[in-house]
Amino acid sequence: MFIDLTRGNDLAYIQQINKEVADALFPNRTDNTMFLKMYEEVSEIVDNPGSEEEIADVLIMLMDHASRHGINVGHAVMMKLCKNMERKWEIDPKTGVAHHVKKEAP
Q: Which CATH number applies to 5-100: 1.20.120, 1.20.1630, 1.10.287, 1.10.3470?
């Protein structure tokens, strides 16, 4: 398999190659095994927040999950960014975590 490193900014290409590599290396993976591995990888980012490799590992796992479920990552991210921009946000004073304000029922 040839990977064209000059296409590193092409998300659709990266998602395609990512699926091909995952299919070749881990043909028997399941959503459950992928999530368990992803949890491991996220904890490694917590321990080493500046690690490009650990961030890449999590993105690789997320893109593989998306591909297995027919989700175009680029499109999904752009749609979600648009939705998030339309929402109201508030910061939880106890945790400092941002949450979107839920619409109240009439």
A: 1.10.287
